[in-house]
Design brief:
The protein has about 425 residues and is of the alpha/beta class. Helix content is about 55%, strand content about 10%. The protein has 20 helices and 8 strands. It has helices at about 5-15, 25-40, 45-60, 60-65, 70-85, 110-125, 145-155, 165-180, 195-210, 225-235, 255-265, 285-290, 300-305, 310-320, 330-340, 345-350, 365-375, 380-385, 390-400, 405-430; strands at about 100-105, 130-135, 160, 185-190, 215-220, 240-245, 270, 280.
Length: about 425
């Protein structure tokens, strides 16, 4: 997500480092690159024009003229303007009501049913709520069965009454939730290929019958510019409280995230980050901006690691690293912990400074995980604790012991050195690692 945009903005910012002072002429060259980067990322052209005009006005201001490092000030201006686009709304989806009522709406194919499962899972973990999923999509074939399967996988109850009137289903679900002590009701509704009167009437009737606390629009980020029309179309008929953007993991452009909030005034509340049932994140404009500008997302990484990593082992490795005693045994432990977080490349990209260190180009085949472990385990305890002693003859023995070649051993040792370099940088920055 935003990978191409991030690279192009980084290229534009790098140009400024060569300028001793910013002028209307040289800032124009840089902003031309910024403009093209945003348009290629599928950001709405009106938003791009307003954004670059604002950046130009501030970049030619007195603050930049007096600055000894105009590139740093320019980066801050870009960050502030991106934050303005994305909105800094405080996001909360929990009220004092019992039960809380939430309804998901959207077009067919946007991923509502999967998303409602992810959302229920998130609410249960984050807020310690007892969710109930309600099957109110009575039209799409297998929609009810799909929701029941998701509920079973997550061990979350699903309320369904077949093809009954959706308004009555939701009313009965609220009654059932109160009886069973379930305090968060999430309603899965029908979608259409396009917004029509019948769909909107049904959704309005459901909302009027039970007074929803949240009405969230599930939106496929890959539909691009048309997303704005979809948001406005639903918002004219329903009191939308937010948007959930899905499939951002499959769209490296992601420009809809930069256009939607600014053009519709409807906040983005969540983003889908994978197809897994834990692949949903609360939308955080500050962190999203940091990702776009290649600053990493340390808080996101820490949150991702919570509940997965062994804190005692992590702290022990961190202390060793601070003392310069980080070895291959620590490397293997952390590598195994990081596997639980998903693809290593995605984790590395969330680290501050990873791009400048050339770490974002690392690509790791999942099969390499098993090879890596086999190579390390083929070493003696002395070799694991002191990798500097691993010379040619030892490499040959290690390679034979794990069924690999010497090149694979060399690759592992290179990855270890890169890891040490990254960890040292993090340590010097006085930042606690989440793994």
């Amino acid at each position: 997500m935003f990978e191409n945009l991030s690279e192009k903005l980084d290229s534009a910012i790098s140009k400024i480092k060569g300028y001793g002072v910013l002028t209307e002429e040289n800032i124009g060259d840089v902003l031309r690159e910024v403009r093209l980067a945003l348009l290629e990322a599928d950001v709405n052209y009106k938003v791009v024009k307003e954004f670059t005009n604002n950046v130009k006005e501030k970049a030619l201001g007195e603050e930049v003229k007096k600055s000894l490092k105009p590139d740093e000030v320019f980066l801050k201006i870009l960050k502030d303007e991106l934050l303005e686009l994305l909105g800094t709304d405080e996001i909360s989806i929990v009220t004092k009501n019992n039960p809380n009522m939430l309804m998901l709406v959207g077009l067919q194919g946007s991923g509502k049913t999967t998303t409602i499962g992810k959302l229920a899972n998130y609410i249960r973990k984050k807020y310690n709520k007892k969710p109930l999923l309600v099957a109110a999509d009575i039209y799409r074939p297998a929609a009810i069965e799909q929701l029941k399967t998701i509920g079973k996988t997550l061990n979350i109850p699903v309320f369904e009454e077949g093809k009954k009137d959706p308004v009555e289903i939701v009313k009965d679900a609220v009654k059932y939730a109160k009886e069973e002590g379930l305090n968060y009701v999430l309603v899965d509704t029908a979608g259409r290929l396009q917004i029509d009167e019948k769909l909107m009437d049904e959704l309005k009737n459901i909302n009027e019958a039970v007074k929803m606390d949240e009405v969230l629009l599930v939106l496929d980020a890959m539909i691009g510019q048309d997303a704005i029309n979809v948001i406005n179309g639903f918002n004219e008929q329903l009191p939308l409280t937010g948007v959930i953007l899905t499939k951002l993991d499959g769209d490296t452009r992601g420009g809809v995230a930069l256009s939607a909030r600014h053009l519709t005034n409807v906040p983005i509340k969540f983003i889908g980050t994978s197809e897994k049932l834990d692949g949903l994140e609360l939308f955080d404009a500050e962190r999203m901006t940091s990702r776009i500008l290649g600053m990493g997302d340390m808080m996101g990484l820490i949150e991702k690691a919570e509940g997965i990593m062994n804190e005692e082992e992590s702290l022990d490795s961190f202390k060793k690293m601070k003392k310069g005693k980080y070895d291959l045994e620590d490397f293997l432990k952390q590598f195994n912990q990081m596997k639980k977080l998903g693809p290593i490349e995605n984790i590395i990209k969330m680290l501050p400074g990873a791009k400048k260190m050339g770490l974002t180009d690392i690509h790791i085949d999942p099969k390499d995980m098993a090879r890596l472990e086999a190579i390390v385990l083929s070493m003696t305890p002395e070799e694991r604790r002191n990798p500097d002693i691993i010379k040619a003859s030892r490499k040959e023995r290690i390679a034979k012991g794990c069924g690999q070649n010497v090149q694979a051993v060399n690759k592992l040792l290179t990855q270890f050195e890169q890891s040490k370099k990254m960890m040292k940088m993090m340590s010097n920055g006085n930042m606690k690692l989440p793994f």
